[in-house]
From TrEMBL:
Cellular component aspect of the GO annotation: cytosol
Parts of the chain that traverse the membrane: none
Gene Ontology terms: biological process: amino sugar biosynthetic process; carbohydrate metabolic process; fructose 6-phosphate metabolic process; protein N-linked glycosylation; UDP-N-acetylglucosamine metabolic process
Protein's organism: Zoogloea oleivorans
Role noted for this protein: Catalyzes the first step in hexosamine metabolism, converting fructose-6P into glucosamine-6P using glutamine as a nitrogen source.
Name of this protein: Glutamine--fructose-6-phosphate aminotransferase [isomerizing]
Domain Glutamine amidotransferase type-2: 2-220
UniProt entry keywords in alphabetical sequence: Aminotransferase, Cytoplasm, Glutamine amidotransferase, Repeat, Transferase
UniProt subcellular location: Cytoplasm
CDD domains: GFAT, SIS_GlmS_GlmD_1, SIS_GlmS_GlmD_2
InterPro entries hit by this protein: GATase_2_dom, GFAT, GFAT_N, GlmS/AgaS_SIS, GlmS/FrlB_SIS, Ntn_hydrolases_N, SIS_dom, SIS_dom_sf
SUPFAM superfamilies referenced in this protein's UniProt entry, alphabetically: N-terminal nucleophile aminohydrolases (Ntn hydrolases) (SSF56235), SIS domain (SSF53697)
Gene Ontology molecular-function annotations: carbohydrate derivative binding; glutamine-fructose-6-phosphate transaminase (isomerizing) activity
Gene it is expressed from: glmS
Length: 612
């Protein structure tokens, strides 16, 4: 979602702001803007805004020869008000400029109060209320830093903000609560941004702000306080994120790069079990043995692709660890009456660790007294990771494409480890089974690499059905969530309408949709449900439907008119969903290429969904 970059340095910071915004493009946005302070003579704000890409903003900056030593910049993903130049940030209130990521829930109330005081609003955004409120505060609190703190005290909701003022041109103020923000300590100045990738161009030294922090950036230093003004020290970290990790390299798209990075990402995530030996529950944290031993039920909360990972894990946890498991969409769980159970292990899964609904669902579960919590997340310093008793950080590396790929397979690897740890602590894993499962996990990177070799055939399939308007995905058992994930991938990047069903449900309704215009994609591993699935496929064939079947080494399904079969290199037992999803990722990717859609930045979507 929205991204923020702030800079104050002994150099022209305009290129830094623009490059920072480019690095935040993956978060999803529809407009961009920046404001700088010209400090020669009377300080003066200069603002540029553009609907569409950062490139448009960069062209405006070039054309105007913009240069300055202090500035704030923003990519906006519309929440309040349509994507337009008028609604793009920064928002200005007489000499003050504000950029904001998040949602101010009481903005209507603030807006009416400010309008009553004579403030004129020129946008439909909640952010403009922050700018005018700050302006109003400055009338009674002349110090900018203190006035920002007083303004924040009146905001309800989530924010990361950056502020510049003509009356105080030697510092930029930033703050966060609920939305991510970190500081960068450079050789020639100080910076802030929504994520590290935006700052690697100038520094690796970063300071992660905590919720409620307010910071002042000057040319000669910075300070951080709580919102009430109490000074706080925040650790300086050296980011290990490599600049290459966020570069495209030889690939056409980040999604393609990330699909092909999966063997490496899985290898990194499973590094702790690479050296032989057994599964150690402490992989999840020092208290894992105690917490897992007292776990009678598992509740998994997540959104989107991460929710699908949870659905696969339910099959594993119930069949291997013999612990009852439910999986719920976070945005539903947080608003319903449920029966809290302190013996439940609450597992939240999130690539970004920022997803507002998942974070809120976790906090809600904790408020109900469920304090045995575990985060499976790809971002170690994220809000979600900080909220849980236990954590497992997947090592997928930065995922830039909006469509989640390597984050999903590494989440599944982490959930497989969780299953084994739960089973072991609760005495449900024999030494023999443990060794067998671990051997499979260790071999996973090689097995995934072999699936990637199927790309040319999958590309051929994608060519055939990219012209279709709808598609059905079928799976059974633990491959039903993989069908769901295949359908989600296809719709989000190719805009082909796709639905997934457990194959046994076909004749209870969706079969009515099947004709030659409806490609049906089936996930058909050689498991105990294969014969049942074959009957379901016959039902499709008999109605003239065209079938694309992802079988595997042991699934004997004959190729025939209208039935296309692709065999996965091996049958992979319990971990088979991890192999099958890779082929569906490739299918969506190639369908999107044929359709010419924006693969990495699909319309209307954001990478980090930091609003409800
Ligand atoms: C998947 O391709 C998505 N872009 C989306 O469903 C995503 O998985 C969801 O928004 C949850 O994000 P998270 O894992 O960062 O919490």
């Amino acid at each position: 979602m929205c991204g923020i970059v702030t800079a104050i340095a002994r150099r022209n910071i305009v290129p830094v702001l623009l490059e920072g915004l480019r690095k935040l493009e993956y978060r999803g946005y529809d407009s961009a803007g920046l404001a700088v302070l010209k400090t020669e003579g009377t300080p003066q704000l200069q603002r540029l805004r553009a609907v569409g890409r950062v490139a448009e903003l960069a062209a405006q900056a070039d054309a105007t020869g913009l240069s300055a030593e202090i500035g704030i910049a923003h990519t906006r993903w519309a929440t309040h008000g349509v994507p337009s130049e008028r609604n793009a940030h920064p928002h200005i209130s007489a000499g003050l400029a504000v950029v904001h990521n998040g949602i101010i829930e009481n903005f209507e109330e603030l807006r009416s109060g400010l309008q009553a005081k004579g403030y004129k609003f020129t946008s439909e955004t909640d952010t403009e209320a922050i700018a005018h409120l700050l302006h109003d505060k400055l009338k009674s609190i002349p110090d900018l830093f203190d006035a920002v703190r007083a303004t924040l005290a009146e905001l309800v909701g989530a924010y990361a903000i950056g502020v510049l003022s003509e009356t105080d041109p030697n510092r930029a103020i930033v703050a966060r609560k609920g939305s991510p923000l970190l500081l960068g300590i450079g050789e020639d100045g100080y910076y802030a941004a929504s994520d590290t990738a935006a700052l690697l161009q100038v520094t690796r030294k970063v300071v992660y702000l905590e919720d409620g922090d307010v910071a002042e950036l000057r040319l000669d230093g910075y300070r951080v306080t709580l919102q009430d003004g109490t000074p706080v020290e925040r650790a300086v970290n050296i980011s290990s994120l490599s600049a290459d990790a966020v570069e495209l390299g030889k690939y056409r798209h980040y999604m393609q790069k990330e699909i092909f990075e999966q063997p490496q990402a899985l290898g990194n995530t499973l590094e702790m079990i690479a050296g032989g030996g057994g599964i150690s529950p402490q992989l999840f944290g020092a208290d894992a043995v105690g917490i897992f031993g007292a776990t009678r039920r598992v509740l998994i909360l997540a959104c989107g692709t991460s929710y699908h990972a949870g659905l696969v894990a339910r099959y594993w946890i119930e069949s291997v660890a013999k612990i009852s498991c439910t999986v719920e969409i976070a945005s539903e769980y947080r608003y319903r009456d449920s029966v809290p159970d302190p013996e439940t292990l609450v597992v939240v899964i999130s690539q970004s660790g920022e997803t507002a609904d998942t974070l809120a669902a976790l906090k809600f579960a904790k408020s109900l007294g469920m304090n045995k919590t575990l985060a499976i997340c790809n971002v170690p310093e994220s809000a979600i990771v900080r909220e849980t008793a236990l954590r497992f950080v997947t090592r997928a590396g930065p995922e830039i494409g909006v469509a989640s790929t390597k984050a999903f397979t590494t989440q599944l690897a982490a959930l497989a480890l969780l299953t084994l740890a739960l089973a072991k602590v609760n005495g449900r894993l024999s030494d023999e089974d443990e060794a067998m499962h671990l051997a499979h996990l260790r071999h996973l990177p090689v097995a995934v690499a072999k699936v990637l070799e199927l790309e040319p055939e999958i590309e051929g399939w994608a060519q055939r059905f990219a012209s279709k308007h709808h598609a059905l995905f079928l799976g059974r058992g633990m491959h039903y969530p993989i069908a769901l994930e295949g359908a989600l991938k296809l719709k989000e990047i190719s805009y082909i309408h796709a639905e997934a069903y457990p194959a046994g449900e076909l004749k209870h309704g969706p079969l009515a949709l099947v004709d030659k215009e409806m490609p049906v994609i089936a996930v058909a591993p050689a498991d105990s449900l294969l014969e049942k699935l074959k009957s379901n496929l016959q039902e499709v064939k008999a109605r003239g439907g065209e079938l694309y079947v992802f079988a595997d080494a042991g699934s004997e399904i004959p190729q025939s008119e209208g039935v296309h079969i692709l065999h996965m290199p091996e049958h992979y037992g319990l971990l088979s969903p991890i192999l099958h999803v890779v082929s569906l990722q490739l299918l969506s990717y190639h369908a999107a290429l044929v359709k010419g859609t924006d693969v990495d930045k699909p319309r209307n979507l954001a990478k980090s969904v930091t609003v409800e």
